[in-house]
Amino acid sequence: MRKIIREAMEAGIELRRACLESLDEPLLKAAETMVTCLKGGGKILVCGNGGSAADAQHFAGELVNRFEMNRPGLAAVAMTHDASVITSIANDFSFDDIFSRQVEALGREGDLLLAISTSGDSANVIKAADAAQRIGMKTVALTGRDGGLLGKHSNVSVHLNIAHKSTPRVQEMHITSLHIICSLVDEMMFGQGS
After folding, report:
1. Number of domains within the chain
2. What residue numbers bound the domain in which 13 lies?
3. What is the pLDDT of residues 163-174, one digit of tens each?
4. Beta-carbon contacts of residue 162 (< 8 Å; ≥ 6 apart)
């Protein structure tokens, strides 16, 4: 049992060290893109499945309420929590449409989609990026493994990829990345140098 604990901890440490080299620029660019959206009066729509759905809600909560500093709320909507909307779309259309229909209903030109997919191949997340593109919204993608189809999507302005095969390790870095983005957004919009 101790071996399982040690291996998980060491794999997480190793991955964080690797991400120190690869994520600096994408994290800065993601935060800058979000700040441009928010300062322009736009909102951030967030989607993902399973653990990524939880991350979407967590991130939206940090923006709408607060992260580490007291500041005005920022416009963000997690498209993962309304069971009536999700199940009606899945029932009447398809599970693949649960996010794209919400992007069509809630998204406007100048808004931003944060699309989270550990595999990069979640059909409903990719369709959300398609819908965002039609509206004129930018997309920031947070993926794992090789980035999948989402990482290659033509509407992805910023791609944060955690190039690792383990879903738990990727998801651990996803939440770390989202927390770093929250810190950067807060500093860029409300910090000493803003």
Report:
1. 1
2. 2-190
3. 999 999 999 999
4. 15, 19, 143, 144, 169, 170, 173, 174, 177
